[in-house]
Amino acid sequence: MWTDIDRIIASNQTFVITSHIHPDGDAIGTELALCEFLRARGKDATIINTSPTPVIYRFLDPGGMMRAPASQEDLPRITAADAILIVDINDWKRLGMIGDTVRTSPAAKAVIDHHPYQDTIVPTTVIDVKASSTAELMYDLITSLGGPLTRPAANGLYTGILTDTGSFRFGNTTPTAHTITARLLEAGVQPAAIYDFVYNQNSEARLRLMGRVLSDMTIAYRGQVAWIVVTQQLFKETGALPEDTSSLVDATLTIAGVEIGLIFVETAEGTIRVSLRSRGRQDVNKIAGALGGGGHRAASGAVLPGPLDDAIRRVTGAIEATMNAE
Ligand SMILES: [Mn+2]
After folding, report:
1. Domain boundary among 199, 215, 246
2. Cα 220 to ligand 1 centroid, rounded to whole Å
3. Distance 265 CA to ligand 1 centre (A)
4. What pLDDT, on the 0 to 100 scale, is given for residue 326?
């Protein structure tokens, strides 16, 4: 599986590693593990990302080896690299600002990913949609090529598997994911410490916002649909920021009997951002699609014109129609 990538690594000296915009724990963790591995083998490796590294993942990179967010100064390095290794994405556009430079660089290129795909963007591609995470594939690459698997690399890979499996609860939590996780713990990963870095970083404002929106939650359709609403007024009163609303919707699906959970967020421009989540039976991608948005079966979103009450009526009306159609 790794023959072609092994050849690229063996026959080149300077490497650029990159991943998608708005990188998640899998993207960042996999990049750092790969960078550690290449450097341990005496290679010159640099991580360059279009987006900044989310605060909750900066613990993985205490030495600041990531160049993120990328600037114009980073582009010549991409053009001059011997090889570019792209992880957790198989799409030029989702590389953001550096995408065109990566695409046109004469460097050897490889993609390592686990997302469903139509076409490959480079000839050397390893995509395994059965892998829980790209971190899982990176573990296989590093160990298949004889290591070393350093402690910082193990931390990155563990973070990737932890976050992409939703803390080992999504359907992609396989025996392989757990087996690799066991090997990472043997390499020195401390699960409690990593969990704390990733998940226990709320601001006071976010908790206050959460309390307010949950106490005003609406439950409808015989307890099957629950929604919460964040107004501009609520942002002002709690001091919370738009990014503090991320994953708040998940709380609605923790209620027994709720099949669809929603969050409506009023933006500063007056539009309404709705995120939909399904426990699994309902396809919220269809509902979002009918509203001009999209996503996946279990998680989707759309942006609607205001005012808030109109947007709520439109979305809940679409949900009612779907549920009645069953
Ligand atoms: Mn991933």
Report:
1. 199
2. 34
3. 26
4. 66
Give me the amino acid identity at 98. Answer: I
The reply to whether 189 and 231 lie within a common domain is no
Residue 98 has a CB neighbour count (10 Å cut-off) of: 24
Same domain for 314 and 228, yes or no, is yes
- The predicted model scores a pTM of 0.86
Q: How far, in Å, is the centroid of ligand 1 from the Cα of 202?
A: 23
Residue-number span of the structural domain to which 178 is assigned: 3-199
pLDDT tens digits, one per residue of 118-161: 899 999 999 999 999 999 999 999 999 999 999 999 999 999 99
Name the strand (E) or helix (H) holding 108.
strand 108-113
Q: How far is the CA of 268 from the centre of ligand 1 (A)?
A: 31
Å from CA of 293 to ligand 1 middle: 22
Q: What is the CATH number of the domain that holds 289?
A: 3.10.310.30
Question: Angle 315-239-266 (CA atoms, 0-180°, nearest 5)?
Answer: 20
- In the predicted model, what is the mean pLDDT of the chain? 95
Whether residue 171 has pLDDT greater than 90: no
What's the gap in Å between 114 CA and the centre of ligand 1?
6
pLDDT at 65: 84
Ligand 1 centre from 278 Cα, in Å? 20
Q: Is the dihedral of CA 67, 23, 43, 111 positive or negative?
A: negative
Mean of the pLDDT values across residues 12-33?
97
Output the CA 225–ligand 1 centroid distance in Å: 29
